[in-house]
Amino acid sequence: MVSPFPRISLALPLFAIALVLSDCKCHKDTPLQKAGVCASGAKSCSKDADCPDHDACTAEAGENCCEFAARTCKQSSDCCPGQICKRDGHCFDQRIECPNGDSDCGDPGSDRVCLTYTDGQGKTDQVCGYAPCDATHACDTGLSCFRGFCVASPPCSGHCDDGNICIPQTNTCWDYGDRCQISCGAGFLPMETDPNNIWDSCNNHAVTCECDELPPLTSNDLGRYSASTAMSDGHVAVSMYDGQYGDLVVRYYDNTGAVTATEYVDGVPDGGTIVAGPSGPRGGISDPGSNVGEYTSIVADSTGRLFVSYYDVDHGDLKLAIRGTDKSWTTQTVDSNGDVGLYTSIALDPSGKPVIAYFQRAGATGSTQCPGGDNTHPDLVTGVKLAKASSANPAHPSDWSTSFVECAAIPAPNCYGCGSGQVCVTDSNGNGVCSQSASGCGICGSGNVCANDGSGAACATLFTAKPLLNIPAGVGLYPSVAFNGSSIVVAYYDHLNKVLRAATGTGTLSPVTIDDGCSANASTCDDVGMFSNLAVEPGGQHRIAIAYHDATTRGLKLYLGTTLALTTNPSDAVIDDGHEPATGDGPSYVGGNVHLKFAADGTLWAAYHNSTGNDLRLAQHGTSSWTVKKKWTQGAVGWFASASQLTGATKLYIAHAQLHTKLQQGHPVKDTTPHLEFYDPTSGASSSDGGP
Q1: Rounded distance, CA 25 to CA 4, Å?
Q2: What is residue 226's three-state secondary structure?
């Protein structure tokens, strides 16, 4: 076909000449129609693709013009993200309306909420979706900001098959056809580049896709069993336990108290499934590994290396993690003979070799023998042990030597040694005794068992131990180790005799009782020595300070001297007596989780927990008494307190955990979080409750 356009162009001059000869006068108020624009003002077109999104090329008064029209489709990928193609060939918004508010969007506490949505035509509806993050990309507690949305868990369950993208507003995967050619790796979710370009008001021509990293894993139980140390680079490193996943974790803070990094050191399984952001905690792996990381202790050397001792819960072993100057971690088992590694305490000798004090809850056949003890039942042997490395870079069990500082067998528990076919039942005195399992009793009630005590079969009550405190029996609990020059100093609690003990020396250590809890006129002695913590003055007289709890008086006590000997209870022997006024917490148990710190100027400080008021306290030692300088009281704080001080600084930093329970999707869950407070003795400035 010959194009008509040349003929039109030739005719235009002739038409202009005719206008002149006819003396035509044009009306100045008649607007000229622009090229490519219909009389109605719409864009002229020859096909739908010439029109803006949501318009169709429609014949109008002899013209082809772009006009608003319903979206037509053959499949859902022809529609906007979040729409489906209905059988009548039109696109339809796939969304959940919520006329009754948040309750229409999920269980109470769900991260899905009711929001107001305004479409392209100005119509508003109440629809379910995720609340937007604030201007700082922050969300409420328990929620993470992901692509501008506050989510408790990844939308679309964190995965969409290839050929689909996730629409957060509908929490569904959407087939995008051939418009986006992407394939996302583990821990990444295919998303629309503009996640709000959805439903009928979208610009369908502008749909593009990308891979977005999923939100990081979060833990509801992070911060217990914490310990802290100052690093040479100006950071405070805090070791802690993640109780939700069973991991050893180390978190770093700068000198303002801000978190700079968090490292999951041990407990993450190799080859686990990535279900969250791989750059976040645990590499995004939620699968459980070995349960490790309780009873941590941490120390740094002058080169920036870190040493963390901790308890392997699953195997009952003492472990050590070392962070090298290249910032990589290695882990090793130090002692695996028996149930060992509780209440660890680590220090470096003058040459940089690590030494670890720890508690043995039960021995095993072939384990270290208890000198002078009955080793025929090693599972009853408890004690405080020392593990000494032969170099500053231990890597194998052969690099360690282990020995007891003091040990003793605990009394055989009820029903110890019951044989095959026997059950443990309660006798008339309330004690557990071994009895032969029997039959012929008929139906015994709950908590009862059929047994024969020698006089015939009868229903008997099963024995259940009811300890008042979850504190093991034995000698050597709460050990704390430090160096006084080349001499090792260890303090610990003897639970069998309820006294505070300590030992010092360069070779074999000879334990002595520091506080027996007895006074001259008392008929009974106090239970003293729990939560013992030791510090040695780095200069001056090299005084040895030991803080410990008096369970009888509920107070926090101190031993301070240049040698180890039975205390004479001087006036400064009580850090805090717990005698709170009735207008406050009232009589309080104080001194749990205590930590001593000699500051650079020689001042002795004690950070500790008030178990009754659930607050964190910092006390300063004076000439002959103690003064509480700061209390942090917001929430159940002060658990596992640990104090440190950066070189050349006056600020004291106190790491601790806050224990809490919160509702998550309508169910109570743990909400334990780590915190780092500071106090400056020079200015009196301090962090506010709950962190800097």
Answers
A1: 29
A2: strand
Cα 507 to Cα 208: distance, rounded to the nearest angstrom: 71
- 480, 384 contact by CB (below 8 A): no
For range 367-396, the mean pLDDT: 89
Full-model pTM: 0.85
* Nearest Cα to Cα of residue 130 among 158, 170, 85: 170
Q: What are the backbone dihedrals phi and psi of residue 199, each rounded to the nearest 5 degrees, phi first?
A: 60, -165
Per the CB < 8 A criterion, the answer to whether 323 and 235 are in contact is: no
pLDDT given for residue 467 in this prediction: 59
Instruction: Give, rounded to a whole angstrom, the gap between the first and last alpha carbons of the chain.
Output: 81
Distant-in-sequence, close-in-space partners of 425: CB < 8 Å, separation ≥ 6 = 432, 433, 435, 449, 451, 453, 460, 461, 462, 463
Please give the backbone phi and psi of residue 200, each rounded to the nearest 5 degrees, phi first.
-70, -20
Render the burial of 548-572: b for 16+ CB within 10 Å, e for the rest.
bbbbebbbbbbbbeeebeebeeeeb
Q: For residue range 197-246, what is the model confidence (pLDDT) as tens digits?
A: 999 888 888 889 999 999 999 899 999 999 999 999 999 999 999 999 99
Q: Which residue has the higher pLDDT, 37 or 352?
A: 352
Q: Cα 613–529–522 angle (5° rounding)?
A: 95
**With bands split at pLDDT 50, 70 and 90, how would you rate the model's confidence at 483?**
very high
DSSP label of 587: B
CB 635 within 8 A of CB 658: yes
Q: What is the mean pLDDT of the chain?
A: 89
Tokens 């995720």 -> residue: 130
The one-character DSSP state at 272 is: P
